[in-house]
Amino acid sequence: MSSDSVSTSTELSPELRVKPRTLAKQVLRDSDKEEPQLLPNETVQDMAQDVTYFCPFIGAMRGTVTVTNYRLFFKCMDRVSLPAFVLDLPLGVVSRVEKIGSASTRGDVSYGLVCKDMRNLRFAHKQMEDTLRKSIFEVLMKFAFPVSNGLQIFAFEYGQVFPENGWKVYDAVSEYKRQGIPNESWRITKVNDHYEVCDTYPSTLVVPVNIPEEELKRVAAFRAKGRIPVLSWIHPESQATVTRCSQPMVGVNGKRSKEDEKYLQAIMDANAQSHKLFIFDARPSVNAAANKMKGGGYESEDAYQNAELVFLDIHNIHVMRESLRKLKDVVYPNIEDSHWLSNLESTHWLEHIKLILAAALRIADKVESGKTSVVVHCSDGWDRTGQLTSLAMLMLDGYYRTIRGFEVLLEKEWLSFGHRFQLRIGHGDKNHTDADRSPVFIQFIDCVWQLTRQFPAAFEFNEYFLVTILDHLYSCLFGTFLCNSEQQRLKERTVSLWSYINSQLEEFTNPLYVNYSNHVLFPVVSLRHLELWVGYYIRWNPRMRPQEPVHQRYKELLAKRAELQKRVDELQREVTNRSASSSSERAGPVRQTACLGDTLC
Amino acid sequence: MWPRKCISAESSQDDLWGKLICTNFKVSFIPQDAPPKQSRLSHLLLGEHDVPLTCLEQVVTVNDTKGKKKVLGSNQKLKFNPTELILYCKDLRIIRFCFDEAGPESAKKVCLAIAHYSHPADLQLLFGFEYQGRRYHESKERINGSTPRGGLQTPIFDRPSDWDREIKRTGASEWRVCSINEGYAISQSLPEYIVVPVSLADQDLKQHSLSFTDQRIPLWCWNHQNGSALVRMANLSDPLQQRKTDQRFLAAITKSHPQRSEVFRSDLDKCLPNIQDIQNAFVKVRQSCVIDPFEESEERWLSSIENSRWLEYVRAFLKHSAEIVYHLDGKNSSVVLQEEEDRDLSCVVSSLVQLMLDPHYRSLIGFQSLVQKEWVMAGHRFLDRCNHLKKNDKEESPLFMLFLDCVWQIMNQYPAAFEFTEAYLTLLSDSMWIPLFSTFLFNSPKQRAQHLMDFAKNKAIPQGEDQVVYFPPVWNWSQQFSTKDQTLFNNPMYVGKGAACVQNGEVKTFRRTKKTYSSTLRGTSASVRNGMRGGEETLPRRGSLVSELRPDFSPVKDESPSERFFRDWFSRPADQQGLLIPLLMPSHMALWKLYFLRWVPEACIPRGGPITAYHKLSQLVDEIEILQSQLRQYKGPSPGSTPLPSPSGPPSDQRRMYFKAGSPNDPPTPPDFLTSSFPFTPVGNLCRRGIHGTPISKFLNEARIWLSTETLANDTV
C-alpha cells in the first residue's frame, strides 16, 4: 500500500479518528472488506468491481469502488497484503466529473474527477454490457452534486453525537463582553435582530453609542447591501477599533450621506487617543473607482473630515481563483525538476498572500502602534474585508491564537458576517464554472499558516488543525461551512465542525505553544519568509511527506519529563519517609529507580 | 578620527560615532558612547563591531560630492578623499562608515591601511601565526607543561591511531593503515597516513602512485556494515599505465568486499557543477540576499533565487550523494568517487554520503572528525578556495559553504537527527574567516606541516611539541566562545545513540532497526504525524506495492531500482540513528535563512522564527536534565545517607541547554532578543545603500570599471 492512500483515508475521514486507539484496529480489520465503515445515516448507493484507478504516483491498480451518499471509496484488490490501498474521499470535494472518451482498445470507459482539494483522480472500467445499467460514476455524479439533483447535502443527515456541541462555541454577546463591550462609547444593537437592516449580517451588532437606530438604517441605505460599519475588535488599552463594512454607494455623481459621515466621525470620536481615522479599502484604487459605475465607490477625503483613505491593492475573487488554478497546474501531480521557483512565482499565489498579509499588518500596526481606529471595507465587505479584519485580529489578540479563540474568530468574522461559503465553494453544485467560486477562505487559512511558520510558539493549534478545517470546508459533513449567511444557516439540523474538533483537542494542539501575554505579532511580510504550504497543496504527492515534525519530538520529551518527575517524586517521598522513620534498612527501590534513571539519561 | 558607523538605511539618527582602527588582525570600530550590547553572542576575540581582515571581501571607498568610488586593493593610491567606506564581508555583513567629521587625511589613511592589510603578501603574515605563538608561550607559563592535544576530543587524523579507530568502528577488516606517505614522501596533498586495501602491499602502492595526479593513490573513506567501502580517487595522469593501475586498484577494492561485488565508479566531474559554477552561484545568491535592495527585489525574489542556481547545486550534490548511498546500502557495492584532483567535489560528496549513512557523523564530535577526515586531511585547498591571500580570484569557491548548506538541508528535514544546531553550522562557516585556526588556512596537510614547522622554529616552540597544541584547529571552541555560549551548539531535539524515545507514554530505547527494515512498511501519515497513536506502527506489513503488482498493472512510469530503493525507504518511518535520505524534490530545497538573511534587518522577524521553538524545547530538555541529575544524586555514593538533592539540578556551567528552565512564576513574555536572526543581530551590521537612487549592485559594477581608469591614471602620473 502506499502512503498516498493512507493519508487520504485518515485525513478525510474525521469520524474515524474520534477514538484513535480503537480506530487503528478497526481500520485494519475493515480493510479486509470491500466496503468502508459507514457513518450514521450513510448508505451505500452503488458498488462496482474491476475498476481501475490510475494513481499518478504509483500507477494503475484494479479494485472495487463503493459510492455512498457521502463518499467514494476505492479499495485495491490486486493484492492480499495488509492494509490494502484505499482511497476514501467525501463527495463534497468533487468539483466535476468528466467522462473521458473511450478510445481505449480494451473498450474501457474512463472518468476523471476534478477535486477542489488540489488533485484529480482518474478511473476506468469496462464498458457496460447492459446498456440500461448506469456507470457507477453516473451514480456518483448524482450524490456528488445533491443540490443540482434535488437531494439533501449529507450534513443534514449525518447524525453523529459528540460530547460537545460546537454550535455553542461562539456567542456574539459573550465575545463582545470579553472585549469589554458595551462600554461608554460602544453599544450592542438589536436593530438587525431579524436581519431586516442587513440580511447578510449577524443579528448582534456593535455600533457607536450615540447613533440612534433610525440613523443606522439611513447609514445602511448608503452602504452596499446595507452592510454598515460595525465593530469587529477593540484594543483593550487604547480603545482603538477595527470596524468593517461594505463600500459607500457614492456612484458616478459622488453622492454623499450626512449620516454616514457623522457615523464615521462617531467611530473616530470613540477613540480619544487619536483624531484621525484610517479607512482601508482592500481593493486596488482602479477597481474601487470602477465600482462607481455600478453605484459603489469609496469615501472621498473631502466628505470625511480627518479620515485618510488607503487602498490596499488586493485583487478580486476572479484573480485569486485563476492564481490557485495555476498553482494546481504547477504542483499536481508532479513537480517539474527544473524551474520550480519561477513556475511558482508565475502563479502569483504567494504574491497575493503577501499583499493580504501586508494589508492586515498595516491595519494591526495602525491600531497597535498608531492607536488609531480603522475602518476596513472592499466592495461588499464579505471577502477581502473578512480576510483583513480576521488576520489583523489574529496579530493583535492572542485569544484568537488559541483553538477556541480561532473558532470564535471564524464564527464571528467569517460565518456571522456572511462570507458566502455556499457561493464561493459551490457545495453540492455541479456548476463548476460558476464565476462566484473563489478560494478566498483557503487564502485566509494559508495566511494563518504563514503566521504559524513565523511564530511557531504563538499558536495553540497545529498545522493539522488548519488542514482539517480546509478538508471540512469541502466535505459537507458538518454544517459549519454550508450556506451564505447567519440567517440562512440551520444550526440545529447539522453538526458543527467544532463539535468534532473540540472532542479531540489533543490531535490539534501545538505542544510548543506559549501563551505570552500582550504578544502582538508583527510578521515579516516578505517573499523571503513566505513559503508555499507544501503540507496542504502538495500533500497528495507521496514524495512530499513531512519527515519528522518537531512537535512529535516535543511530545516525546514531555512524556519523558513526566516519567522522570514521577520517579523523582517517588524517591523524594521515600527519602522523606525514611528519614522520618529513621530506618536503617537500605531501600531497594532507590537502586532500581536509579537504574531506570540511567536508561533515560 | 571620528567616523560614523551607519546603522539604518533610512536615517542617520541611530548611527554611532566612534573610532575606526585597523590592526594587523581586524578592523575595529570603538563607539564613543558604547550603546547597550546588541548581540547575544559574545565572541571572545572579536567585538561586536570588529571584522577580521581575512573576512573582508571588498573594501570600497566613496566620495559623494565628487561622485567617485573605488574598490581598494593592496598598495594602491587613492586620488580622492573618501567620505565613506563600505566593507563587504565574507560572512555576508556589509558595514558602512561615513567620514563627515573625520579629517580627510586620516580617513584616507585608514582606508588604505585596511585595504593594504586585508591583502597579506604571504600566508605567514596572517594574524594566526602571530597570535598562536604568543598564546602558546603565555599558556605555557600559566599551566606549566602541555595538556595532550589541548583536551581536544575531535580526532585530527594526523596519526595512525585515529585511522585505526575509524577502521575498527566501521568494521573495515579488509583495509589497513598505510604509512608510505610519511613525511609526504609520495604525495604532496595526501595525509601522512592513509587507509588502503589489505591486498595491496606498500611496494605496489608506491609503484602505482606514479600514475595518479599528484601521486594521489585511492583513499579509503568509510565502510558500510555490509562490507561496502567508500573510496575516493584522483584521475590517472599517466595514459600508458592507466588501464593497468586502474584495474589493479579496482581488483583490490573488490577483494576487500566480503561479497566481492562489483565496484561502482562515479565520475564527479561529469555529473556535478564545477567550482567556478559554484562560485558564480554563490555570488548571485549573496547578491539577491544581502545586496539587492529589499523592497525592489521582492517581486522577482523566487526567480532571482532560482537564477542564482545555488539551490539547484545544493540539490544536485545531495541527489548525487543519495545515489551513492543507494549503491552502498541498496546495492551492497563499493563505490569509488573519482575527480580530477580529488580535492573539491569529492570532499562534498564523500562527507554527505557518510552523513546520510552513519549516525556517528551526526554527533558533534563525529561531524568534526568528518570535516577533519574528508576535507582537511584529504587536502581540500582551503587557502585557495577561501582566497585568504586575495591573490587568485579564479581559485575561489565556497565548496565548504555548499557542504554546510547541504548539511543544513538534511537538518531542516530531520530536526532530531543532529546533535548540533544551525547556529553551530553558521558559526563554523564564520570561523573560516578568522585566521587563527589551523583548520582553514592551508591547502594540504603537507603545507600545514611545513608552515607549522617553520612557525615553531620562529616562535621558539620546542621540537616534538604537538601542532594541535601550539596551533589549534577550530574544534577547540573555547578559543572563540564561553562554555555558556557553546551550549548554543546543542540541539535539544537530538535523538542520540541509545537515547530514550517515548511512544504512547512508555519510554523505549531507540534501536538500530536496519536489519528489520525490509520487512516493515511505514505507518500511516497520521500515525507518523501524531506520533502518539498506538498499534498501527508496530504491525508488520508485507511487501511494497510495486513488487506485488501483477505485470499487466505495471506502474505508469517505469521505476528504476534506485527509485524503488528510495520509495521503499520513504515509505517507512525514518530512524534517526539509521540511514537518512533527504527528500529531494525541488520544492524541498529551502533557502538557509539564518545564514543568508541573518544580517538583513528587513528580514528579521521580531520575537519569531524557529528560535522560539528552540527556546521552548531547550527549556523542556533543561528540566529533564535537572530531573536526571536529581535521580543521579539519589543514587549517590552513600545511599544510606542520601541527602535531599538540590532542586536546581547540575551547576549552571554543566548545563547543556542555552535556555534554562524558567521558574513557573516567570511571566510568560517572549524575550525581545528572540528574533529570526538569533544569535546574531542585524542592527548596524548591514547597510545597503542606493547612491542617488542607484542600487548598490549597479554601483559596484561601475566601481569595477572605475578601478581600471584609476589604474591608468596612476600609470600616467
From TrEMBL, chain A:
The UniProt entry, under InterPro entries, shows: GRAM (IPR004182), Myotubularin (IPR030564), Myotubularin-like_Pase_dom (IPR010569), PH-like_dom_sf (IPR011993), Prot-tyrosine_phosphatase-like (IPR029021), Tyr_Pase_AS (IPR016130), Tyr_Pase_cat (IPR003595), Tyr_Pase_dom (IPR000387)
Q: Where is the Myotubularin phosphatase domain?
A: 166-537
* Membrane topology reported for the UniProt record: Peripheral membrane protein
**GO terms for cellular component:** early endosome membrane
Question: What does the record give as the reaction this protein catalyses?
Answer: 1,2-dioctanoyl-sn-glycero-3-phospho-(1D-myo-inositol-3,5-bisphosphate) + H2O = 1,2-dioctanoyl-sn-glycero-3-phospho-(1D-myo-inositol-5-phosphate) + phosphate; a 1,2-diacyl-sn-glycero-3-phospho-(1D-myo-inositol-3-phosphate) + H2O = a 1,2-diacyl-sn-glycero-3-phospho-(1D-myo-inositol) + phosphate; 1,2-dioctanoyl-sn-glycero-3-phospho-(1-D-myo-inositol-3-phosphate) + H2O = 1,2-dioctanoyl-sn-glycero-3-phospho-(1D-myo-inositol) + phosphate; a 1,2-diacyl-sn-glycero-3-phospho-(1D-myo-inositol-3,5-bisphosphate) + H2O = a 1,2-diacyl-sn-glycero-3-phospho-(1D-myo-inositol-5-phosphate) + phosphate
Q: Where is the Tyrosine specific protein phosphatases domain?
A: 347-394
One Gene Ontology term of the biological-process aspect is: phosphatidylinositol dephosphorylation
* Active site residues per record: C378 (phosphocysteine intermediate)
Q: Which GO terms describe its molecular function?
A: phosphatidylinositol-3,5-bisphosphate 3-phosphatase activity; phosphatidylinositol-3-phosphate phosphatase activity
Localization annotation: Cytoplasm; Early endosome membrane
Q: Which Pfam families match?
A: GRAM, Myotub-related
Function, in words: Regulates the level of these phosphoinositides critical for various biological processes including autophagy initiation and autophagosome maturation.
The entry assigns this protein to a family as follows: Belongs to the protein-tyrosine phosphatase family. Non-receptor class myotubularin subfamily.
Q: Report what the protein is called.
A: Phosphatidylinositol-3,5-bisphosphate 3-phosphatase MTMR2
* UniProt source species: Dicentrarchus labrax (European seabass)
Name of the gene this protein is made from: mtmr2
UniProtKB/TrEMBL annotation, chain B:
Species per Swiss-Prot/TrEMBL record: Dicentrarchus labrax (European seabass)
Please give the family membership noted in the entry: Belongs to the protein-tyrosine phosphatase family. Non-receptor class myotubularin subfamily.
Q: Which PROSITE patterns match?
A: PPASE_MYOTUBULARIN
Comp. bias regions, Pro residues: 640-650
What Gene3D superfamilies does the annotation carry?
Pleckstrin-homology domain (PH domain)/Phosphotyrosine-binding domain (PTB)
Location of the region described as Disordered in the Swiss-Prot/TrEMBL record? 633-675
- The record places domain Myotubularin phosphatase at 157-596
Protein name from the UniProt record:
Myotubularin phosphatase domain-containing protein
Q: Which PANTHER family match?
A: MYOTUBULARIN-RELATED (PTHR10807), MYOTUBULARIN-RELATED PROTEIN 10 (PTHR10807:SF39)
Can you cite a GO biological process for this protein?
Answer: phosphatidylinositol dephosphorylation
Q: InterPro entries in the record, alphabetically?
A: MTMR12-like_C (IPR022587), Myotubularin (IPR030564), Myotubularin-like_Pase_dom (IPR010569), PH-like_dom_sf (IPR011993), Prot-tyrosine_phosphatase-like (IPR029021)
A Gene Ontology term for the protein's cellular component: cytoplasm
